[in-house]
Amino acid sequence: MKFAFLCKERTRSSGAKVAVVGAGPAGLAATGYLVCRGHEVDVYDKLPLPGGMMTFAIPKYRIPLDAVMEGVEDLQKNFGVKFYLSTKVVCGERHDEGDELARNNVDLTKLVEGYNAVLIATGTWRSRRLGVPGEDAENVVSALEFLLKLNLGRLGLLEGKLWSFRRVVVVGGGLSAIDAAEESLLSGAQEVYLVYRRTIKEAPAGEYEIDRLIRLGVRWIELAAPKSIVVENGRARAVEFQRMKLGEPDETGRPRPVPIPGSEFTLEADLVIAAIGEIPTPPLAPNCGDLVKYVGKDGRVLVDRGYRIPGTNIFAAGDVVTGPSKIGQATKQGLEAAREIDRLLSAKILVTAR
Fold it and tell me: Which residues lie below 8 Å from residue 337, measured CB to CB, with a gap of 6+?
């Protein structure tokens, strides 16, 4: 996986410095473009290895870890990119999943002052909650937390022990739910249930992925939504579900799931995984000052057509701008944002030269 695919070797330095915050697909793609244009790039990430969710959440049969690390090594050795890992960049104070892995903190405003441009590519590191009683039990986790700790364990980077489980219930119908269910099965679970509130036809992951899991042994239950978590001594013992039927389309255009009274049923579980999506996590906390107005209610960074926060040298791209997407889209946005950064820097360099 070569991120600097537009050139074979380092070109003459432009003299400009760019900070990329987030070493996921958008950030790494942007880094590759910028170094090929002669700019010096430093990459900051709160995780102990680059790659973002490609390294810590997406199964390795989809994206081999070696391929990601080879691309990173190419950026370091051949283009002089510096990676500041286990380093969280933020303006103000906020906590997201994976923050416990950070050993250092850097104020975003310091980067803005110290670099010619800053690209925010911090992705979506906060999971949506189920919103039902009992979800705070110790063995109820998000898909992101589950996959992150699983991969940290495999890499020998986990402090503490993983969960032990025989019977797993995964709630959701997207790719994170697919990955969590499959990894549960591969990690030794004897029974894995994947429960979704609509039908297989509406599931964001698609029928092919769900049918594949069913063939592997995952038990698929559709038209059911969690009503509560049954908790004993601080641990989830089961999940109470309610059957649903499809009603009129909602704001997404998909049929709205409507509860069927008196249709409750329970599934016993050693581990409950909530996989109902993630939200953007920009390094802009509520107490960050004027920059907060460029964060939408859904957490997305609000940028102009050039991926720029108006009136600043701050750019943003990838899932932190769009919300959860696929790697290809995040990579494309990273490249487009890098092109806009290069245009800005090139214009300033020309003015200086004159």
Answer: 26, 30, 119, 121, 307, 315, 316, 317
Residues 258 and 318 in one domain: no
Report the CATH number at residue 206.
3.50.50.60
- Residue range of the domain that includes 256: 129-274
Whole-prediction pTM: 0.94
CA distance 42 to 84: 7
Q: Which residues contact 341 (CB under 8 A, 6 or more apart)?
A: 18, 30, 34, 39, 117, 119, 315
CA distance 67 to 62: 11
Burial 93-121 (b: 16+ CB within 10 A, else e): ebebbbeebbeeebebeebbeebbbbbbb
| Amino acid residing at 139 | N
Q: What is the pLDDT of residues 267-323, one digit of tens each?
A: 999 999 999 999 999 999 989 989 999 999 999 999 999 999 999 999 999 999 999
Q: What are phi and psi of 187, to 5 degrees?
A: -90, 5
| Contact predicate 4/105, CB 8 Å | no
